[in-house]
Design brief:
alpha/beta; disordered C terminus
Length: about 300
């Protein structure tokens, strides 16, 4: 058995001398700073106060923290409420880190209040015990906004086609059983003709294009339903909505292409981290098992 070694605690266990932490809520944040005590050498002093989540108030806080010589500010990733704090403080030149709420959990059995949470975050920050989450730069954030908005538009367009299919089924028109999908030009021509008042299945089937012409007899049977004017009115609304969504998705595609083209070529290190291109960085990352900030 080896001889026990005695190791004294050292001051070097503290990584940061001057830190701040903010427990974020929707309308405000509780700020805690940890600084050396002004009159007791070796002691630490915590100061806690509440700041409203407004541009002016957060900007004033940033100036106050800079004047205090704060080295690092920690934010907990609470919903989207952290954004105003992160972007304003970072824009004022402060070093800011966003941490996963699971990492900053308080000890079991201790009271949980905003004040205590902020003080606990500050203590963890000064000891360097928190791992910051990835927050992309502004250009990537803008690109992700565009790509995610386009994704939502495409998803909504798909739902519109599903509603259109359900409407046709309610009118006893089995067009989707013959056509591979309602997004084909042949299917849209037939639907537009029914909206315009055409009810003859043979005439509607005659609007088929390319390979769908071979399914003429099946189309005649499928288009023989009970489509009336009220179905036509609803179908017209859905097609108009689909056209609007197509237009907006195309507009966003143009924006995305321009944003990617304007980005500088990735460095080897950033290429390996993002998958090799700005477009790869814009794609949503796989979700980790523990909750974190949504980008």
């Amino acid at each position: 058995m080896s001889k026990p070694q005695v190791i004294d605690d050292e001051e070097h266990e503290r990584v940061h001398e001057r830190v701040a932490a903010i427990d974020v809520a929707k309308d405000s944040g509780v700020v805690c700073t940890r600084l050396p005590h002004p009159s007791r050498p070796g002691a630490r002093q915590s100061t806690v106060w509440t700041v409203r989540a407004r541009m002016g108030a957060v900007g004033k806080l940033a100036r106050q923290l800079k004047n205090s010589g704060i080295e690092l500010v920690t934010l907990e990733s609470t919903s989207d409420y952290w954004r105003i704090w992160f972007f304003v403080l970072e824009g004022c030149g402060l070093a800011v880190q966003l941490v996963n709420a699971a990492q900053a959990k308080n000890l079991p059995g201790r009271p949980k209040t905003d004040k205590l949470d902020a003080m606990w975050l500050a203590r963890l920050t000064e000891m360097g015990l928190l791992r910051p989450s990835f927050v992309p730069p502004a250009a990537i954030r803008d690109l992700r906004d565009y790509t995610r908005a386009r994704t939502r538009l495409v998803q909504e367009r798909t739902r519109c086609y599903q509603r259109l299919e359900k409407l046709l089924e309610g009118a006893l028109v089995k067009l989707s059983s013959v056509a591979s999908k309602l997004t084909t030009e042949s299917a849209k021509d037939m639907i537009k003709a029914m909206i315009a008042g055409q009810r003859d299945p043979k005439v509607l089937a005659g609007l088929a294009r390319t390979r769908m012409k071979a399914k003429h007899d099946d189309l005649v049977e499928a288009l023989d339903g009970m489509f009336d004017d009220h179905h036509g009115e609803l179908a017209r609304m859905l097609l108009d909505q689909i056209a609007f969504l197509d237009e907006r998705a195309t507009q966003l595609t143009t924006r995305i292409t321009a944003a990617v083209a304007a980005m500088p070529a990735p460095t080897p290190s950033s290429a390996s981290a993002t998958g090799g291109s700005p477009a790869a960085a814009a794609r949503p990352r796989p979700r980790s098992p523990s909750p974190g900030p949504s980008w």
